[in-house]
Specification:
- This protein has a single domain, classed as Metal Binding Protein, Guanine Nucleotide Exchange Factor, Chain A.
- Helices cover 24% and strands 24% of the residues.
- A six-stranded antiparallel sheet has the order 3-4-8-7-6-5, with no helix packed on it. Strands 2-1-9 form a three-stranded antiparallel sheet, with no helix packed on it.
- The longest helix is centred in the first third of the chain and has 17 residues.
- It is globular, with a radius of gyration of 18 Å.
- It starts with a helix and ends with a strand.
- The relative contact order is 0.20.
- About 15% of the residues have low confidence.
Length: 164
């Protein structure tokens, strides 16, 4: 292969795009983090559905208005689909109109956050504190009392109804 101006420019553009989008870094952080619940990639694939794996382990996003959890209104607890960690109380859920289940406060110690520079913007990613699974993002446009909107992927969670 000859190295000419086009090769250098193409390589530079690919490198810049990878840097801007965080290519590989987010999934690597989830898979290599020091979390209490850890499995090999093969074990995660065996435990999760294809869509759960795509969201939780590869930092995917479900299409808006597709999760039944967006319309879940019973009393109960939303848990991590990867490890069962208790994440959010239904008392903090609200209808954000975005098409994803939204909450204004997680349960104590349930989640972690990190900077996400993918898609050419800076956002705050939310992950499960126990397994590192990608849950969604948090934004500063939520209701009182926190002013936060935890915009979560429904596929990344399960719902456990409260006992009557």
């Amino acid at each position: 292969m000859t190295i000419d101006r086009r090769t250098i420019l193409t390589g530079g553009a690919i490198g810049a795009l990878a840097t801007l989008t965080g290519c590989g870094s987010r999934a690597d952080a989830t898979n290599s983090g020091n979390f209490p619940v850890r499995y090999t990639d093969a074990q995660w694939r065996a435990r999760l559905t294809t869509e759960e794996y795509r969201i939780l382990r590869e930092h995917g996003t479900e299409r808006p208005f597709t999760s039944p959890l967006d319309n879940e209104s019973r009393r109960g607890t939303f848990t991590c689909a990867g490890c069962g960690n208790r994440l959010f109380s239904s008392a903090t859920k609200f209808d954000s109109g975005t098409g994803w289940p939204s909450f204004y406060r997680p349960l104590p110690g349930a989640i972690g956050t990190r900077m996400d520079r993918s898609l050419g913007m800076v956002r705050t990613e939310v992950h499960c504190a126990d397994c590192g699974g990608h849950l969604g993002h948090v934004f500063r446009d939520g209701p009182r009392p926190t002013g936060l909107r935890y915009c979560m992927n429904g596929v990344a969670m399960d719902f456990v109804p409260a006992r009557s």
